[in-house]
Design brief:
The complex is a heterodimer.
Chain A lengths: L2 E5 L2 E3 L5 E8 L8 E6 L5 E7 L6 E3 L7 E6 L4 E6 L8 E8 L11 E4 L3 E5 L2
Parallel strand pairs in A: 2-11
Antiparallel strand pairs in A: 1-3, 3-8, 4-5, 4-9, 5-6, 7-8, 9-10, 9-11
Chain B lengths: L8 E4 L5 E6 L11 E5 L6 E4 L13 E6 L2 E6 L8 E9 L4 E4 L3 E5 L1
Parallel strand pairs in B: 1-9
Antiparallel strand pairs in B: 2-6, 3-4, 3-7, 5-6, 7-8, 7-9
Classes of the chains: A mainly beta, B mainly beta.
Chain lengths: 124, 110
């Protein structure tokens, strides 16, 4: 079965950096676009970034553009999120999610399934 | 402030039907497909509806989706206490070149 396992979360000071990983299994990782979505404590979902199945295109939410970088290693079936210049408002559970359809372009993205999430806390 | 607007909460009795609305604009719902997600307390979200009205395998037909113009609706019939959750609509916004979600609707089954 499809499994997504996030790791790398933790407590970091404002201005610091963190790299999240999402280990994928149970499907052909190199055929699916992948997303990061976050949820601040007690708040709703906020999409963060998307990377196409082959890494050729990347999209970001305005709130993280220039600070976060999404990447993938298809040989390791792993998705990454490099987070720099972290702010208190970046505190959230970060989920990775797989596109429902293989090789979907941006704009035709349905998140299925989701990982269990990893908590990032930005605090001094 | 979410790009898509949902009511903060809805409620209905067991066995009844409820609808949850999601309002957007021509740059998002008006020209892109809508999806819906269910988030049970303490768990990750789950895809309920995609392409406006399609259900992934395993999702019961008690859940339905529709879209008209710049609004979408999630319908749930035969409400069960296990349906108590937060529900989110989502789509792509062509002007932002970003995926967007509604603020979420908390469903209470009285």
């Amino acid at each position: 079965q499809v499994q997504l396992v996030e790791s790398g979360g933790g407590v970091v000071q404002p201005g610091g950096s963190l790299r999240l990983s999402c280990a994928a299994s149970g499907f052909t990782f190199s055929s699916y676009g992948m997303h990061w979505v976050r949820q601040a404590p007690g708040k709703g979902l906020e999409w963060v970034a998307f990377i196409r199945y082959d890494g050729s295109n990347k999209y970001y939410a305005d709130s993280v553009k220039g600070r976060f970088t999404i990447s993938r290693d298809n040989s390791k079936n792993t998705l990454y999120l490099q987070m720099n210049s972290l702010r208190a408002e970046d505190t959230a559970v970060y989920y990775c999610a797989k596109d429902l359809a293989s090789k979907a372009a941006a704009g035709n993205n349905w998140f299925d399934p989701w990982g269990q999430g990893t908590l990032v806390t930005v605090s001094s | 402030q979410s790009v898509l607007t949902q009511p903060p909460s809805v409620s209905a009795a067991p066995g009844q039907k409820v609808t949850i609305s999601c309002s957007g604009s021509s740059s998002n719902i008006g020209n892109n497909y809508v999806s819906w997600y269910q988030q049970l307390p303490g768990t990750a979200p789950k895809l309920l509806i995609y392409d406006n009205n399609k259900r992934p395998s395993g999702i019961p037909d008690r859940f339905s989706g529709s879209k008209s113009g710049t609004s979408a609706t999630l319908g749930i019939t035969g409400l069960q206490t296990g349906d108590e959750a937060d529900y989110y609509c989502g789509t792509w916004d062509s002007s932002l070149s970003a995926a967007v979600f509604g603020g979420g609707t908390q469903l209470t089954v009285l």
